[in-house]
Amino acid sequence: MKELGISALDHLIDQLSQLPGIGRKTAQRLALFILKSEPEFATELAEAIVNLKQNTHLCKRCFNIAEDDLCAICKDTSRDIHKICVVEDIVDVMAIEETHTYHGLYHVLGGVISPLAGVSPDQLHIKELIRRVQDEPIDEVLLAINPSTEGETTIIYISEQLKPFNIKITRLASGIPIGSHLEYLDMATIGRAIQSRQEMK
Fold first, then answer.
1. What are the tens digits of pLDDT across the range 136-151?
2. Containing domain of residue 190, as a range?
3. Confidence class of residue 175 from pLDDT cuts 50, 70 and 90?
4. How far is CA 107 from the centre of its chain?
5. Residues whose CB is less than 8 angstroms from the CB of residue 101 and which lie 6 or more positions away in sequence, other chains included
6. What is the CATH number of the domain that holds 33?
7. 152: CATH
8. How far is 195 from 172, CA to CA, in rounded Å?
């Protein structure tokens, strides 16, 4: 597309190709689709992006996406306030919610402990999790962290931090392949892993 010399098109392709999972070819197809679409579609798409950036932020309690101080899950009075499911990222909340097998609260870490990548426990929302366990009537923490070397390190670290509180600490059942990410697994696999979660001793 560069050879066309259309700066507006090239700029959109450059921006789209920065999205995760979007290569140059896909970015070109998306840009041409937008170019050929009705003006109303392009306007609504642009407005939706701006609206997302201006009117959403992280939940002050669990760090999920929110439009108010608290996210929709934290504000839902039908949720089980005695359980917290700890996940790596917001996309994992979405994946678990699609299974309809978990009805407690969440806590989004914002990543995993990774010394090689320079990510320490202090850079994640672990202290906030400990504070919630101290202040809220929590009796179970489910560590639903992606099964990787960094994920295992994070699980071990958090479980050690939670031991003094005498609560039930569980993790997803085995069966999820090492290196997998929850967002790419089917709902049935995630649902079974939650329902068959194992207590950590």
1. 999 999 999 988 889 9
2. 65-199
3. low
4. 10
5. 190, 191, 194, 195
6. 1.10.8.420
7. 3.40.1360.10
8. 8
Q: Which of 198, 194, 116 is nearest to 149 (CA)?
A: 116
pTM of the model: 0.81
Query: Of the candidates 182, 179, 160, which has an alpha carbon nearest to the alpha carbon of residue 169?
Result: 160
Contact 106, 62 (CB under 8 A): yes
- Contact yes or no for 79/99 (Cβ under 8 A): no
Q: How far apart (Å, rounded) are the C-alpha atoms in residues 4 and 171?
A: 53
The pLDDT of 140-164, averaged and rounded, is 93
Confidence of residue 1 (pLDDT cuts 50, 70, 90): very low
Q: For residue 143, what are the β-bridge partners?
A: 86, 171
Q: Based on the number of CB atoms within 10 Å of its own CB, is 58 exposed (0-12), middle (13-18) or buried (19 or more)? A: middle
Instruction: Tally the domains of the chain.
Output: 2
Q: Return left, alpha or beta for 56; rule: phi > 0 is left, psi -120 to 50 is alpha, else beta.
A: beta
- Strands across the sheet containing 168-171: 104-108, 80-87, 140-143, 168-171, 198-199
Q: How high is the pLDDT of residue 2?
A: 47
Range from 7-16, 37-46, 116-125, 167-176 carrying the lowest mean pLDDT: 167-176
